[in-house]
Amino acid sequence: MKRALLLSLLLAAGNLQAQDQALIPDHVRAMVDTICAACHMGTGNGVNESPENPKLAGQHAEYLYKQMKDYKSAEGRPPARENGVMNGMIVMLPDDESLRAAARFYAAQKLEPAQAKNNENTDSFKIGRNIWRAGIASKGLPACAACHGPKGKGIPSQYPAMAGQFPEYLEAQLRAFRDGTRTNDKMMQDIALKMTDLEIKAVSDYAAGLR
Known about the structure:
Layout lengths: L1 H21 L3 H15 L20 H10 L15 H4 L6 H12 L15 H12 L10 H4 L18 H13 L6 H7 L4 H12 L3
Helix pairs in contact: 2-5, 3-5, 6-10, 8-9, 8-10
C-alpha cells in the first residue's frame, strides 16, 4: 500500500514537472535548447570546464527571473547587472512572460552538484564552514546560513540556493560584489566588502560541497 502511494506521488510530481515545461512558449524553448544551452547546457548544469557559467538547474525561479530581468536595460537606463554576454543574449527573451518561462524551465531541472575541492581536514574547509555557519563577529560579517540556509538551499523569492554551485563562479561573484563590478544586490556588496580573498575562496568552496 505504502509503495503504491509513493509511486503515485512520484508519478504525479513527474507529470506536474512535464506539464510545467510543456507550458513554455515555443520561442522560449527554442532559445533554451540553442542559445542558452551553449553555456548552461540543456539541463542547466553547465560544464565543469567552464565554471564561469553558473549552474541554473534547480535554482529558485524567482531568483532566476530577477537576474534575467536585471540583465535587461529598461527605459533607456543601463542594466542593473552587467555582463558582456548576457546583456546581449537576454534581449532574445523579449517580454516578461518569456523571462518567467525560462526561469520556470531551469528551476524544474535536476541539479547535478559541483564538488568542493577541499575536504574537512583542510584549513580552508574549516574557515569556510565557520563563515557559513557563524560568520565573523569581530568584522560584523553575518553567517551565510542566516539567509541561504544551513544546507545552502536558499529561500525562494529572497535568497538563491548556493549548494552545489561551481565554487569558481561563487568566488567570482563575491569578488565582483566586493570590487563593485556587480551592483544589483546592495546587501551582498556590503557583506563582500568585509571579506578577504582567502575567506571568499574558502566559503565559496564550502558552499559548493553543501548538499
